[in-house]
Design goal:
By secondary structure, the chain is an alpha/beta fold. The chain contains ten helices and 13 strands. Strands 3-2-1-4-5-6-11 form a seven-stranded parallel β-sheet, sandwiched between helices. The two termini are about 15 Å apart.
């Protein structure tokens, strides 16, 4: 019920939803964390606002169809075609967890690049509008100053973990090439570290902290916790992607993040430990899958000037995540 509140809030935002009336959205990663939330929002719009949108959700696992969402079992790395009309294509499918980068670096790269290529080919064929979900990771090593969309950071490409960062960069370059060569209308959503009550195991720091808090254990911090990152609660990440799909300018990239609390990673760990009545334990060790980035703050002025704004602050999203997961514990 608590998560339904978030779906309702996003579905009732004053967006130009008419652009989705009687339209078909093809979405890779539709069973993922952000993708499933977007599906739920569209289902809500159909049920309570008679929007009549359809979603074709691509997934290697498939799923159970309903009135809004039909599932197509498909590995996006392989070329495919569909007979239905498609008005919008959203590419969300990707390995997004640090442990996945380490366990399947090749699959991480190929899903991003081949998946993007196959879906953009389909978008050109269907004359559909395309949205690429990119990442804060394309900026590489950030600075203390929040990064704007024109910033290009340093990435050490001679490490396995760089496959995610670099393949997202290549996907963005591929998108611009499709725009130039085939006239594809397309935008880029650069998503910050996203969190929320995800049912799948997430190896990102905040998710691990939350797992410990919900189970009543001490939170283990494997660094000094001086990192300063931008974050987005899942409802805000989803609302921003929908907003960019509706209002984004062709060829533009947009940063997505909740407003900065001014806190370090250790501060968020302490906040979650306080919610749970536990404490933070520091266990600093060499972690090969961990990001070496100290700063990854995103400036979201561009998207806000377009008309988007987050619903939650980071600490509000963390508290809500804790309450949802605790209720399910």
């Amino acid at each position: 019920m608590i998560m339904l509140e978030d779906i309702k809030k996003v579905a009732e935002l004053p967006y130009n939803w008419d652009k989705l009336n009687d339209k078909v959205l093809l979405m890779s990663g539709g069973t993922g964390f952000i993708g499933s939330f977007i599906c739920n929002v569209i289902e809500y719009r159909n049920k309570y606002f008679n929007q009549k949108s359809k979603i074709i959700s691509l997934s290697r696992r498939g799923g159970t169809d309903n009135e809004t969402v039909s599932f197509l079992k498909q590995d996006v790395r392989k070329p495919f075609s569909i007979s239905e009309k498609v008005d919008y294509v959203i590419h969300l499918a990707s390995n997004t967890h640090p442990q996945e980068y380490a366990d399947d670096p090749i699959g991480t790269i190929t899903t991003n690049i081949y998946g993007c290529d196959n879906l953009m080919r389909l978008a050109v064929e269907k004359k559909a509008k395309f949205l690429l979900a990119s990442s804060v990771e394309i900026y590489g090593q950030g600075t203390e100053k929040p990064m704007v969309e024109l910033y290009s950071g340093y990435i050490d490409c001679n490490q396995t973990r760089a496959g995610y960062n670099e393949s997202k960069r290549v996907s963005e370059a591929l998108l611009q090439s499709y725009r130039t060569q085939y006239g594809l209308e397309a935008m880029i959503a650069r998503v910050s570290r996203t969190f929320g009550p995800d049912k799948k195991k997430d190896t990102k720091a905040l998710a691990q902290f939350m797992d410990k808090a919900v189970s009543g254990e001490n939170i283990v911090l494997k660094s000094k916790g001086n990192q300063r990152f931008s974050y987005a609660y899942v409802a805000d990440a989803a609302s921003a992607i929908i907003f960019i799909l509706l209002e984004g300018i062709d060829g533009e990239a947009y940063n997505i993040a909740d407003d900065d609390d001014g806190l370090k990673l250790a501060d968020y760990a302490e906040f979650m430990a306080e919610l749970a009545g536990t404490k933070v334990v520091y266990d600093i060790e060499n972690n090969p899958s961990a990001s070496k980035t100290t700063y990854a703050l995103m400036d979201c002025t561009k998207l806000k000037q377009l008309g988007w704004k987050p619903i939650y602050a980071v600490k509000e999203g963390l508290e809500k995540t804790y309450r949802i997961l605790k209720a399910e514990w």
